[in-house]
Write a structure and sequence with these properties.
Number of strands of chain B: 31
Strand order of the largest sheet of chain A: 2-1-5-3-4
Shape of chain B: globular
Largest interface: A-B, 62 and 66 residues
Strand content of chain A: 15-25%
Shape of chain A: globular
Radius of gyration of chain B: 27 Å
Largest sheet of chain B: 7 strands, mixed
Distance between the termini of chain A: 38 Å
Number of helices of chain B: 18
Largest sheet of chain A: 5 strands, mixed
Strand order of the largest sheet of chain B: 12-13-10-20-17-18-19
Oligomer: heterodimer
Structural class of chain B: alpha+beta
Structural class of chain A: alpha+beta
């Protein structure tokens, strides 16, 4: 066990954990930040996506030792009340079915829009194809990203 | 006792568990509420029971479906698990419609498992259709009681009062009373058993595109899925299960496991007798998930793998091949197919193969049990909370009233969570440890220990007469029957595998259908649109092949087979008792129109058609593809026309249908579970591929305007997709698809 100092959602927190513990389980089991989801454990599905220094990152495959060096944003830090334009667009387009993957999708989409405020279809497909939606909400996700972009989704 | 429906679903609902009224109150979880009037419209014996609670709150609860506080707060309870099918929005919409409130005046809460609701489950696309009458009555009865309470207060006749937007108004003055104002008075009235329901033309909420009630919680990450529940003192367990189906534990060494920080202990789990309950495994119990996962890796287990070890794709194929050249159980035999084939020249025959498929919902299996001497608390994602309660009752010896089942939101079902094996594990472990335990499955566990869509082999032989009319059709099917898996002595192993009344049966003078089950240890279960996800591929691919042989257009050929006269065809499976050729022909014609079927396809584009009836709904779909080099199918777009009767929620209806189409493409283009040495070969999303956004086509779904009673929507758009896609591949390449998933480069495939 070692102590790690993390910066999560602009707050500094101290966590005791084994060095190989993935950030995902630190968030969920130690910090009670359960918005980030477990899907595959291998960085293949994107359900666990968070931002590390602004980049969409799979928290299931990021050991805490590596995470401690950067600035982490989770869904809980995106907005307190769902007011982020991407979250608003998700609600407006009624995107979710089961909803389990949507936090990861939203984190991938916000990272994309932060870098490319007006993404092309190809940009969206490239940025979002690491995130699986078993319910098949892809057409609505794509539309929601465009709606958010049109409203200045960078926020 | 297990009650299996036509769907092959064991919902765990046993009305005899109801015990007495006091138990109902306890089970309802609403006992703090002031007044509990009536029970449900299903159980008249206990309707009209008035029970005054000592807390003295003045709530109006005319049934288990809704509660109106004297503070004006209106809560509608949703009875079924929410697995992404949208039931938590749809059923409350129906209740709110009849209650005469605005959508923004209500709050929706998930109901508990409570026998007053009747069977509570998610399966067979039945949520709306089987509850439509009951929930309408629940809303309407409450409205009538509120109106009556107001009329008494005003001392005027009932016909001078009416309900609107959460108020009772009078037509002879401006005076009005809010529902909250009269909740207490209404609670003293007898429950209306047969209220007058609204005319459909007056609907304001039913039919609207209302966003999902949990959307805000979903997009902020605050909605509670099973994996997010955290009862105090909860431990986490990860289980190493015998990789070979049906195996047992010979010996194990957990010394390295116990050295891992956070690991508390290991527990040996023996396989239950019933393969649908629990397999053998070693559970590693820890303070947190990561410690449990690491602890599992450190286990050394020697397995005893008796019967199943030699099973493989090859051994199963050998059984399939033997079967389809043998005589099976004859499920339907019209005319005389043998004579018909002897007397016609245009005969066509083909053999099809469908693989095992995994469900792979995004939320891996998990369940929490807290077993104490005096009761059990349960949390988790399931399609069958009643089955979980029955498992808990069996394992603990406690009566159902001592068992509280909380339905968390479910991160996808697709039929996987009709099996409650993972809840059985959690209950067993919590019982052993006397502590709350959450069982967590990894994705590898999920793919290796699924109850797969049955694999099968199918031979179809059909004939045209001298006028190129379809006169004979002989389907011989062999599959790893899921009915036979859950019960080796299952009397109807063909049930939910093939459908003797389905198209084209009944339209062809000489028709025979045979079935032969295959014995296997590989677990099988219901996978979205059970049976139909294969049969629609078979009949809708082969009907195109026969159209091609006849030199006729596939759409025209289908319409010719269905005939000009509109008929109600007998249909004994789920979705019957009849289906309408008028509605089927209508979706076929509309899909042809919406896709410009009769106009030339743009250069480099190729189309395929398919149509299907299932579970009461009618679907026709056109898939357009292009072939990018080399041997890669690009799905350009999909047009679908669906007649599911009255639509409750337009937004969710389209979402479900689009999702089913993408799911169908995902399976047909890339999915198969292979069996090797008695175990599943695939283990994560790198070798079990789900469609991703870059490969998802544009989807245009058209809903037929209808005033027929509502049908479900969660499964129906999937079955025609593999066929429409296969037909498009034939149009593009001239090669027939004979095996799923479709691989153009595989010689044995097309």
């Amino acid at each position: 066990m070692a102590t790690y100092q993390l910066t999560i959602n602009n707050q500094s927190v101290s966590v005791e954990a084994e060095a190989d513990t993935p950030l995902l389980w630190v968030l969920r089991d130690e910090l009670d930040l359960k918005g980030t989801k477990f899907g595959c454990g291998k960085g293949l599905c994107g359900a666990c996506t968070v931002h590390l220094n602004g980049n969409a990152t799979r928290s299931c495959s990021l050991p805490i030792a590596a995470a401690a060096k950067g600035k982490i944003t989770t869904i809980e830090g995106l907005s307190k009340d769902g007011s982020h334009p991407v979250q608003q667009a998700w609600m407006e387009m009624d995107v979710p079915q089961c909803g389990y993957c949507q936090v990861g999708q939203i984190m991938a989409a916000t990272a994309l829009l932060a870098k490319k405020p007006n993404p092309t279809d190809a940009d969206i497909e490239t940025a979002m194809s690491g995130n699986i939606c078993r319910c098949g909400t892809y057409p609505r996700i794509k539309k929601a990203i465009k709606v958010a972009a049109a409203k200045g989704g960078k926020s | 006792m297990k009650e299996m429906s036509k769907l092959g679903i064991d919902t765990g609902f046993a009305p005899n568990d109801s015990l007495n009224r006091r138990d109902f109150l306890k089970l309802s979880g609403l006992s703090s509420a002031g007044l509990l009037l009536g029970i449900s419209f299903l159980n008249s014996k206990i309707a009209n029971a008035k029970i005054l609670d000592e807390t003295g709150e003045k709530n109006f609860e005319p049934s288990v479906y809704l509660k109106i506080g004297s503070d004006g707060k209106i809560i509608i309870f949703s009875k079924n698990p929410e697995i992404g099918q949208g039931i938590k929005t749809a059923l409350p919409q129906i209740i709110a419609e009849e209650l005469e409130v605005r959508w923004d005046q209500i709050e929706v809460q998930q109901g508990l498992l409570d026998n007053r609701f009747g069977a509570q489950f998610a399966g067979g696309s039945t949520g709306v259709k089987s509850n439509f009458d009951t929930v309408r009555k629940a809303g309407a009865a409450a409205r009538e009681m509120l109106v009556e309470a107001a009329s008494r207060k005003w001392q005027i006749s009932l016909d001078k009062c009416y309900a609107k937007e959460g108020f009772v108004l009078r037509n002879d003055s401006q005076e009005k009373l809010s529902y909250g104002d009269i909740a207490e008075a209404a609670s003293k009235l007898n429950v209306r058993e047969n209220p007058k329901l609204k005319d459909r033309k007056d609907y304001k909420i039913i039919g609207q595109a209302i966003p999902g009630v949990d959307n805000k919680k979903i997009v902020t990450g605050t909605v509670e899925f099973g994996l997010d529940a955290r009862p105090k003192g909860m431990l986490v367990a990860v289980i190493e299960r015998c990789p070979v189906y049906g195996g047992t534990i010979k010996s194990y060494d957990d010394s390295a496991t116990l050295k891992i920080a956070g690991v508390i202990q290991t527990v040996k789990l023996d396989a239950s007798k019933d393969a649908t309950q629990m397999g053998a495994g070693i559970a590693v119990v820890a303070k947190n998930t990561w410690a449990a996962m690491k602890g599992r890796k450190a286990l050394k287990i020697e397995w005893e793998n008796p019967a199943g070890e030699n099973e493989s794709d090859e051994s199963l194929n050998a059984q399939f091949e033997k079967n389809i050249s043998s005589k099976g159980e004859v499920l339907r035999d019209d005319g005389n197919v043998d004579d018909a084939f002897a007397n016609t020249k245009k005969i066509h025959e083909a053999t099809f193969e469908a693989p095992f498929l995994a469900h792979a919902p995004m939320e891996p299996m998990n369940y929490i049990a807290d077993v104490r001497a005096d009761g059990v608390d349960l949390w988790g994602p399931t399609q069958v909370p009643g089955t979980v309660r029955r498992f808990a009752a069996t394992l603990t010896g406690l009566t159902p009233d001592k068992i509280k089942v909380r339905m968390t939101r479910v991160g996808g079902g697709f039929g996987r969570r009709l099996m409650a094996d993972y809840a059985y594990e959690a209950i067993s472990l919590s019982k052993a440890l006397s502590k709350p335990v959450q069982v967590v499955w990894t994705r590898e566990d999920d793919l290796q220990h699924d109850y797969f869509r049955p694999a099968g082999m199918y031979k179809i032989k059909a004939a045209l007469d001298e006028n190129n009319k379809l006169v004979a059709w002989h389907l011989k099917s062999s599959s790893t029957s899921r009915g036979r898996f859950s019960d080796p002595n299952h009397k109807t192993p063909h049930a939910t595998e093939v459908f003797p009344d389905g198209f084209p049966a009944g339209f062809i003078p000489h028709f025979r259908m045979e079935y032969l089950p295959v014995t296997s240890k590989v677990p099988r279960g219901a996978w979205r649109a059970p049976g139909h996800n294969v049969t629609a591929w078979l009949d809708q691919t082969f009907i195109d092949e026969m159209a091609n042989l006849a030199g006729k257009d596939p759409v025209a050929f289908r319409l010719e087979v269905l005939g000009e006269e509109d008929k109600l065809m007998p249909y004994s499976d789920h979705g019957g008792p009849v289906y309408s050729t008028k509605r089927l022909k209508n979706v076929i014609k509309l899909a042809a129109e919406k896709s410009n079927w009769n106009k030339p396809t743009p250069k480099g584009m190729f189309r395929g058609f398919a149509a299907h009836f299932m579970f009461g709904a009618y679907v026709a779909e056109v898939v357009t593809i292009s072939i990018s080099s080399p041997n890669t199918i690009k799905v350009e777009n999909v047009v679908a026309v669906v007649d599911c009767g009255l639509v409750i929620n337009k937004s969710n209806a389209l979402n479900q249908l689009e999702g089913g189409i993408i799911d169908g493409l995902s399976a047909a283009l890339g999915q198969a579970v292979h069996i090797e040495n008695g175990r599943a070969k695939e283990s994560n999303f790198d070798d079990y591929k789900l469609l991703r956004m870059k490969d998802a086509p544009q989807v245009d779904v058209h809903l037929v305007e209808s005033n027929e009673d509502p049908e479900g929507l969660g499964e129906m758009s999937l079955p025609p997709i593999p066929a429409a896609l296969s037909n498009a591949v034939f149009a593009a390449t001239g090669k027939h698809v004979r095996k799923l998933p479709i691989q153009l480069s595989d010689k044995g495939n097309t």
